[in-house]
Design a protein that fits this description.
The chain has 173 residues and is mainly α. The protein is built from seven helices and no strands. 63% of the residues lie in helices and 0% in strands. The model has no long low-confidence stretch (mean pLDDT 81). Helix 5 packs parallel to helix 7.
Length: 173
C-alpha cells in the first residue's frame, strides 16, 4: 500500500503529460490509446480493490526527507485528486475513443460509490466531504454533454456502451 501511495501521484502526472502531447502519426496514436487504456485500467483496479485511500492520502515524511518534499509543495495524493478527476472528465468527454470514455465513466461511478455515499452511521462524516458537489456540478453535466454531442451516434454499438455507462451512475437517494 505504501509503494502504491508513493507511486500513484507521480505516475498520474507523468501519464497525463504523455496524454497531453499531440499525436503526430499512427504509431503515436496506437501508443497514446494503449497508454490511456492501461492507465484507466490501473485506476479502476485500484478503486475496485478497495485501495481508494491512496487517492486521498496525506503522506507524512521523516524529518530527514521533509525538506526535500517541502520543496515539492503539497505532499500526499489528496492535493492531486482534483487534477486526477479533471483528467477523467476530459477522457469521458472524448468521443474519439468510446472504450476509454466508458472506462472513465466507470471509474467516476466507482468514485461516487466510494466517496459520496451517505455515512452508514448517524452523525458520521462523509468520507470525502464536498465530493457530492463535484458530482452535481461536473460529472452530471459531463454525462449529459456526452449524450448531446453531435458525434454521438446511437446506431453505433460502441456508443451504446458509453451511453449505458453514463446512465447507470450510482444513485443514493
Amino acid at each position: 500500500m505504501d509503494v502504491l501511495d508513493q507511486l500513484i501521484g507521480p505516475l498520474s502526472a507523468h501519464i497525463n503529460g504523455i496524454l497531453a502531447q499531440p499525436v503526430t502519426g499512427t504509431d503515436d496514436q496506437v501508443t497514446h490509446t494503449d497508454t490511456k487504456r492501461a492507465y484507466l485500467g490501473l485506476l479502476t483496479s485500484i478503486i475496485s480493490s478497495k485501495l481508494h485511500t491512496v487517492f486521498i492520502s496525506d503522506r507524512k515524511f521523516s524529518r530527514r526527507n521533509w525538506m526535500y518534499y517541502r520543496s515539492l509543495g503539497d505532499v500526499g495524493n489528496k492535493a492531486q485528486l482534483e487534477n486526477l478527476l479533471e483528467s477523467m472528465l476530459r477522457l469521458a468527454e472524448d468521443p474519439s475513443d468510446p472504450t476509454s470514455e466508458k472506462a472513465a465513466f466507470s471509474f467516476l461511478g466507482r468514485c461516487m460509490t466510494v466517496w459520496a455515499e451517505p455515512p452508514k452511521t448517524p452523525g458520521a462524516q462523509q468520507v470525502l466531504p464536498g465530493f457530492e458537489r463535484f458530482i452535481y456540478e461536473r460529472v452530471v453535466p459531463t454525462a449529459f454533454a456526452v449524450l448531446s454531442l453531435p458525434q454521438f451516434n446511437i446506431k453505433d454499438g460502441q456508443i451504446v456502451v458509453v451511453s449505458s455507462s453514463s446512465r447507470t451512475l450510482p444513485t443514493w437517494r
